[in-house]
Every structure is written in structure tokens, then in C-alpha cells.
Specification:
Blueprint lengths: L8 E8 L2 H8 L13 H4 L4 E7 L2 H14 L1 E7 L4 H4 L7 E6 L2 H4 L12 E7 H16 L6 H40 L10 H12 L7 H14 L4 H8 L4 H9 L5 H13 L1 H6 L11 H15 L10 E2 L13 E2 L1
Length: about 325
């Protein structure tokens, strides 16, 4: 469900109530001293369940909406509404009691689960961490927690809620900045765009054509490579590569047209020359037997034989991690 709806999830933890836990709950008493459950197998609804741990508060809302659309919801409860009653400070979680819909149970593989109830809990990572720690402390306590400890719990609960909201605000702001960056790339306002995997992909798709074979992690790696070489904006990248034909460079080195990111790295090699080699994460020093150095220098020689020379453009790049106060110098291209 999460993947089909493009929902971001930290983890999904299935769990089943143990026999001992069921025995204790089934044997519990109500306020008048009588049995709390007359028909335990029917009335105890958390025999099986799933805990969904999301990243942000907005994800909790999205998961709740998806659950209500996919299942018959018997009951929905927001545990944050009963904190004072339960005296479980900081514990927040949205709980659903659900049943499979008839459209599911009419299928042979789901028929055995018809009429059964399961519990789904949805909470954020911070809420989950809190609940686990709070439960452990409560469990170890031989009696009610002292007032001072309870007061400190309450103070931390407020901090937790503020942190969750701030993470949600940061996530929203980050998404907005990503949208602005993509709009800037599409409008060729490259000076406004910092190098990020998403911005780099948008730029390369625009310049070299899309390549569905490329994975997100590959753009992440290439973005880090650019940062290590000293690039900060897409404008700097565009200035360096604009005079080079990616298809020509690829065919000079490999005699074939390579994938989008491979062509881009070859263009960077052609434009930066030796500076690309020594600034690359794979560079470990001048070793004639180093595969990366040997391979890159052979590629550079093929490019030079084909009439491709490094760029004469004047551009100052500061490689990431370079300490200019300690004597390191920027790359002047």
C-alpha cells in the first residue's frame, strides 16, 4: 500500500499478541471487580496488528487516509487525545481497528480472514522512540512514578511535539525549495540553483536528454562528485561543459554513445583534464598502478588525439573540505 501510493515510511512492524499477554488481558477486571471481557476472543481486538512508523506528521495523516480507503475501519482513536487520562506523557499514536473489505474477502486467498479484526498503529519516528523509552521506564517502575519524574516527562513531551512540528516544517520548506530549483532549471536560471541530485537530474535531462536507466542514487553520487570538485551551482557546471559535445566525447573514448551520466563525467574529464582526476574521490595519489588514474589518463589521451583539450575558461572552484586558511588553493580553470 505504501509503495503503490508513494508514501514515505521508516518501517512497518507486524506483531501478534503472545499467549501470556492475551491471558493477562483476558483475565483483567473492570472497575467493579468483574471480568472486563465476557467473550475475550471476540472483544480483544489487538490479537494481531501492524505498527507503521512514518517520518513526518503529514505522513501520519496520509497513512490514515490510505487506511480508511483500503479497509473497513471499525474504530479510529488518536492516543494523543487521552494523554492526561492515561498519564503517558508524550505518547502519541493514531490507532485503527480494521477489517478486510468484502471486495478482498471474496477472493479465495483472503477468504479465511473474513470478519477478523486487526489493529494498525501509525506514529512518527520521534513518537515511536518516545513511546519505547517511556514504556521501558514505566515497566521498570515498581510503583507510580514520582511527581518530579512525571513533571520532567511532561516537559520533554512538549519538546518532542515542538521537534516533530519543526521537522514537518523543515520538510515542507525543503520540498518548496526543490520545486523552486526545478522551475529555475527549466527556465535556465542556473545561477539560482545549488547542486542537488534533483537539480542535477533536471539539468542533465534538459541538456542531454532523459535516461530512464539512471537511478536516484547515481545522481546523488554525481552531485557529491561535483561538490568535491568545487562546484556550487548549476551555472558553474553549465559554463564548464557548454563547449563540449557529449556524444562526440563519448564516441572518442568508447566508440559508442554511453548513458547520460557516463557522458557527463566524460565531458567533465575533457573540460577539467588532470584537475578532474586529482579532485575525484577515487584518486589516492600518483600511483602508476592505480586503476582509476591509469584509466582516466588513457581516456584523456584519446580525447587529446581527437582534438579535445581542457577548457581555458577562467573559473575558480573551491573543492569541498579544502581549508584555504591552511594553505590549500582553489582550482582556477
Amino acid at each position: 500500500m505504501a509503495k503503490a501510493r508513494n508514501l514515505q515510511v521508516h518501517s512497518i512492524e507486524p506483531h501478534a499478541k503472545s499467549l501470556e499477554s492475551f491471558r493477562r488481558k483476558a483475565g483483567s477486571s473492570d472497575d467493579r471487580g468483574g471480568p472486563r471481557y465476557e467473550r475475550p476472543l471476540e472483544q480483544i481486538t489487538d490479537l494481531a496488528g501492524v505498527r507503521v512508523i512514518a517520518y513526518f506528521l503529514s505522513d501520519v495523516t496520509d497513512f490514515g487516509r490510505a487506511i480508511e480507503e483500503e479497509f473497513d475501519v471499525v474504530e479510529r482513536s488518536d492516543k494523543s487525545d487521552v494523554l492526561e487520562e492515561e498519564e503517558r506523557f508524550g505518547y502519541k499514536s493514531v490507532h485503527f481497528l480494521v477489517k478486510l473489505r468484502h471486495s478482498r474477502t471474496s477472493l479465495i486467498e483472503y477468504a479465511p480472514f473474513s470478519g477478523l479484526t486487526a489493529e494498525i498503529q501509525v506514529r512518527t519516528v520521534l513518537q515511536h522512540a518516545w513511546a519505547e523509552i517511556e514504556h521501558d521506564i514505566q515497566y521498570k517502575a515498581t510503583q507510580a512514578l514520582p511527581r518530579e519524574i512525571r513533571r520532567r516527562f511532561m516537559s520533554l513531551a512538549g519538546m518532542l511535539e515542538v521537534a516533530d512540528r519543526e521537522f514537518a516544517a523543515i520538510e515542507f520548506a525543503s520540498a518548496d525549495l526543490r520545486r523552486q530549483a526545478l522551475d529555475a532549471v527549466q527556465s535556465s536560471r542556473f545561477a539560482e540553483v545549488e547542486i542537488t541530485p534533483e537539480a542535477l537530474k533536471a539539468y542533465l535531462d534538459q541538456k542531454y536528454g532523459g535516461d530512464g536507466r539512471m537511478k536516484d542514487w547515481a545522481y546523488g553520487w554525481t552531485a557529491r562528485l561535483l561538490t568535491k570538485l568545487g562546484f556550487e551551482t548549476i551555472e558553474q557546471v553549465d559554463k564548464i561543459v557548454s563547449d563540449y559535445n557529449d556524444d562526440q566525447v563519448s564516441r572518442l573514448v568508447y566508440s559508442t554513445r554511453q548513458g547520460q551520466l557516463s557522458r557527463f563525467e566524460l565531458v567533465l574529464l575533457a573540460a577539467l583534464g588532470d584537475k578532474f582526476i586529482v579532485g575525484h574521490p577515487f584518486y589516492k595519489g600518483e600511483d602508476d598502478d592505480d586503476w582509476f588514474v591509469k584509466s582516466s589518463r588513457k581516456q584523456l589521451e584519446r580525447l587529446r588525439l581527437g582534438g579535445i583539450e581542457p577548457s581555458s575558461l577562467t573559473l575558480t572552484l573551491v573543492p569541498s573540505g579544502a581549508d584555504l586558511t591552511a594553505g590549500a588553493t582553489p582550482l582556477a580553470l
